[in-house]
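Q: What would this chain look like folded?
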Amino acid sequence: MYILTLLLASIPLHASTPIDENAIQRIDSYVNTDPDSAIILCNEALAQLSDRTTAPKVSLLSIRGNALFTLGDNTAAIADFSAAVRSAEEIADTMACVNALSDLGVAYRVNQQSDSALICYNRALALLEKSDAPDLEASILTSIAVLFANQGRFEEAVTFAEKGLDKARLTDDIETQIYAASSLGSALFLAGHHDRGLQTQRNIIGIAEKKGIPRYMLKTYASIIAMHNRLGHPDSVRYYIDRGRAVLDKVPEASIESIGFLEQSFVILTAMGRYRESLDIQKKILDMQDSRPFMPLDRLWQRIALNYKGLGDIENMDNAYMTAIAIADSIHQSDINEQISDLNVRYHTAEKELAIASLQAEKSRRDTIIAIIIAGVIIASLLLTIYLRARRRKIEIENIRARLDGIEQERGRLAHELHDGVCNDLLGIELILASGRCDTKELSKMIRTTRNEVRSISHELLPPRFNGLSLTQLIAAYAQKSEGFVSYLTEESTIDLDPEKSINLYRIIQEWTGNLRNHSSATGATVSLTESEGEITLDISDNGSPFDPTAVTSGGLGLENLKRRVKALQGSLNFFEKSGSNHMSVKFFK
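A: My prediction, written as structure tokens:
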């Protein structure tokens, strides 16, 4: 490959040779077969062009971006696609701008930047409203379908994939047709139409193999492996894994198709109990400098934790779970879903408006009157929607204000703990060092105490996320990190709560056990969580001095935070003594 790259780079593209359409098509032909050579030729051609923006410059930027994307260098690809969009806008080339926006949206989606991908798709569809470019529209519609599927909205994904395939069939571009049909097959299967999904995927595999396109062969193999694995067909799984491995070395290592196939492979290996092999593939994907796995990173780390669990490595399992929680905390799923819904409504509204415009040109006066009535209904519906949205927004703002108030109070409490605990301990260490009497044991004990306090506070700062983790698993992990202070008694069955209630309950446990550890004489606390006929009971017992809530002054932010969270659960809070132990009990209905 290195020798071939050098030979291609030496093919004459001298300053005297014009960069015409034939030269650009020749460079573009290397993107799928030899992306390294495509990049070299693009660099040489771009160096010949002046600083002035031209159509060839836009094309070369897009070609180089696709070559980089094929190699898995998403960061550089996004930079080139963005430059192509800006250049196309500068010369008012609508089709080139749409093409670059489509490529940029795919790169953002693979890079797990769904909100940025949506913006690109929105802009591209808006530009295509008055144009006839079925190949570009097919690519965008199919990309939107993949985005819907990634969000678990499978029926909507099927709708967009079918529209994308209809547009693709109007073109002679075989790769566009393969991309659209393969996405439709996956969407149909995920939506529960298993037979149609499998048959569609088999047809596309035949076309991809006949055309000899390794990227799409590997992509379709990965999809059909996932389908057969879901249906419990181990022989078919092994068959397509072997066929995929036969073409794996013909596709760049960090390409999205290669990574997609590797991800399906490690999922299968985990299911077969071959944890070490699965873990090796996962580490290989994480170690690829420029790769971005299809699977969201929080889910990938959860899969890594499962392999460590299978190997009996509890410490690495726990670290993997905590990494998954931290990554999931940065995902704003609700915002993305709202933007997707807006995109769906906007696109279908645009289709209806085009249909109405066509009917108005063909129908008689009676149809015109009907159209006016329909427009009135639509306006009334829009006004009602605006009113309801404004009302909902007002409620959301009130809820946000209440949450921010609670956050500020919690920050104040943590600031007091840092000042009164960690800062005083550090001052004590400083004084000992200044005095010159360096008692190693005493210093070691003080440093260990300070470290434990900082760790406890940092755990309280970490917001819990429940993507792939149950509430009981999260409480158990918290108890394990408490260094023996917290014990957790759990039922055999998993208690299923919605995320909002789970977060409030988890915070109550953090708040109360933290108070017991830092501000009471207790040497241990026991947490139990039970469910009976839809009623959830949280009980935290300790062996310290009895707690009298009436003796707490107005400055007791910990108790106020506790009461506020119990109120959010619409539950009851009680303190009592039983069998020589102190108890804090919270009861509420699911």
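The beta strands are 486-490, 525-532, 535-542, 572-578, 581-589.
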